[in-house]
Design goal:
By secondary structure, the protein is an alpha/beta fold. It has ten helices and eight strands. The radius of gyration is 18 Å and the shape is globular. The relative contact order is 0.15. Bound molecules: pyridoxal-5'-phosphate (PLP). Its cofactor is pyridoxal 5'-phosphate.
Length: about 260
């Protein structure tokens, strides 16, 4: 499945450039995680990145992910970043090197995943809850938390359910796809309100976990991670405190247009 020499050189070069930009924009004390978003791109492109030491890859479609996971090295850490339906949970859970679900929005799906994960899986499946920070109808995700949110909010109910009913899942943080408008606007204003909303949600959730669950493990050493930033705005996202960035076009080039994307 090797890529042509030209294509491999092109992908390698783009990956190296994105990596150095990620490193330069990184503001936290932990190195950020770069997820290479490979939807619609051939397995040969993924292998090129893998051979350059890239281990985290993101896919949006269950069947495409299943096929790529079967064909590619088992050391790859797959991140599912597409719209997630509970009837696909079983198929996803069967992928041994599925590393993270970044788009969880319902307890029904969480329970289906937890139930379907094989008993001999070595590590829990990482979970990010998707938050619709821009409030756009076309985006999925739960509403962000605000300081007036009470315990009945959807995010808090989902978190409670995850912790009490899904032992094979590990709540790792929150994810958002900000609005394109914010992304463009933020370049002038130096602040992206979607990123700010995700951060505020994380801080409130973290406080809630420490307060309600009273567990030391939700303190300082167990900071919830943020997945925000894509090709057009990952540097701004990192400056705003993102831990995980998801970059597709910047590494692999343009994708064929699809209306559902
Ligand atoms: C496609 C996709 C990306 C990558 O987008 P680019 O603009 O190509 O970097 C990131 N996150 C999600 C959820 C996506 O669907």
């Amino acid at each position: 499945m090797s890529a042509s020499i030209e294509r491999a050189a092109e992908v390698s070069e783009s990956l190296a450039e994105i990596r150095s930009r990620v490193q330069a924009a990184s503001s936290g004390s932990y190195p950020p995680i770069l997820v290479a978003v490979s939807k619609y791109k051939p397995a040969s492109d993924i292998l090129t990145c893998y051979e350059d030491g890239q281990l985290d890859f993101g896919e949006n479609y269950v069947q495409e992910l299943v096929e790529k996971a079967e064909a590619l090295p088992s050391k790859i850490r797959w991140h599912f970043i597409g719209t997630l339906q509970s009837n696909k949970a079983k198929t996803l859970a069967a992928i041994p090197n599925l590393h993270t679900i970044q788009t969880l929005t319902s307890l029904k799906t969480a329970k289906a995943l937890d139930k379907a994960l094989p008993a001999d899986r070595l590590t829990p499946l990482n979970i990010l809850i998707q938050v619709n920070t821009s409030g756009e109808d076309a985006k999925s995700g739960l509403p962000p938390l605000t300081s007036s949110t009470d315990g009945t909010s959807e995010v808090l109910r989902l978190v409670k359910g995850l912790i009490t009913e899904c032992p094979k899942l590990h709540l790792q943080g929150l994810m958002t796809i900000g609005s394109l408008e914010q992304s463009l606007h933020a370049a002038e204003l130096d602040e992206n309100s979607d990123f700010e909303r995700l951060k505020a949600t994380r801080d409130l959730l973290q406080e809630y976990l420490v307060r309600e669950l009273g567990d030391a493990k939700w303190g300082e050493d167990r900071r919830l991670l943020l997945s925000m930033g894509m090709s057009s705005d990952f540097e701004a996202a990192l400056k705003a405190g993102s831990d995980i960035v998801r970059v597709g076009t910047g590494i692999f080039g343009q994708r064929p247009k699809k209306t559902s994307d």
